[in-house]
Design goal:
Elements (H helix, E strand, L loop, with lengths): L1 E6 L5 E7 L1 H4 L5 H15 L58 H17 L3 E4 L9 H10 L6 E5 L4 H7 L5 E5 L5 H5 L3 E5 H11 L2
Parallel strand pairs: 1-3, 3-6, 4-5, 4-6
Antiparallel strand pairs: 1-2
Helix pairs in contact: 2-3, 4-5
């Protein structure tokens, strides 16, 4: 097991903890991380882009000019894709971009992302996160004490309304419960601030 220092809210060491190897000590598989992030972004796409074909554009019922004698190319409709205001050829239409990945693939990628963060020294383990009021200055003070400015993902074991509300006004600082962790959120933040209780929750949820 990997050993990591535990700090308190005043950035003082209060001991050490062992992190499970099946969560924080697996091989980092970059291709798998890429695939899971691609899946996450694809599932977030609205897929509402739409264009009209020549059959959907209004007008165009009358032949714009006679077939012969004008010296111009033949034309049967002023809603042809060749004309201004005409239909669009091979344009986008509403579609669903989402697709599913096996749970084992998602879990493997999640442990790979956490392992990569730990290997890069971007995991901070704190004994307790005490925010009782939904005030931004409470979280800002905590991050300042720990030397963290922004781009931080705070991982907690379960829902904490006060902490989540207090973090909303700080740019690039987000709160995630263990049950909603995903590879994209882990990799898109520079630092992971994890409470000690969240590690225990991870062991229950993920360790096999």
């Amino acid at each position: 097991m990997a050993e990591i220092e535990i700090i308190n809210q005043n950035n003082k060491s209060v001991g050490k903890a062992d992190l499970p190897d099946d969560i924080f000590g697996v091989e980092v598989r970059r291709a798998l991380l890429h695939e899971v992030v691609h899946n996450h972004l694809a599932n977030k796409r609205q897929g509402t882009a739409s264009t009209k074909t020549r059959g959907m554009v209004s007008g165009g019922g009358k032949k714009p000019y006679k077939q012969k004698g004008t010296g111009r190319a033949r034309a049967g409709s002023n809603r042809s894709p060749l004309w201004k205001g005409g239909g669009t050829v091979f344009g986008p239409h509403p579609r669903d971009y989402s697709y599913k990945l096996p749970k084992k693939v998602k879990w493997s990628a999640l442990s790979s992302a956490l392992s990569a963060k730990l290997a890069d020294g971007e995991v901070i383990l704190i004994d307790n996160i005490s925010v009782t009021e939904p005030k931004t200055k409470a979280v800002k003070g905590l991050l300042d004490n720990l030397g963290l400015k922004n781009n931080v993902l705070i991982i907690v074991p379960e829902r904490n309304d006060a902490l989540e509300l207090a973090s909303r006004n700080i740019p690039k600082v987000n709160v995630a419960r263990v049950s909603e962790l995903n590879v994209y959120s882990i990799l898109s933040h520079e630092k992971l601030l994890i409470s000690k209780d969240a590690i225990e929750k991870m062991k229950e949820a993920y360790s096999g």
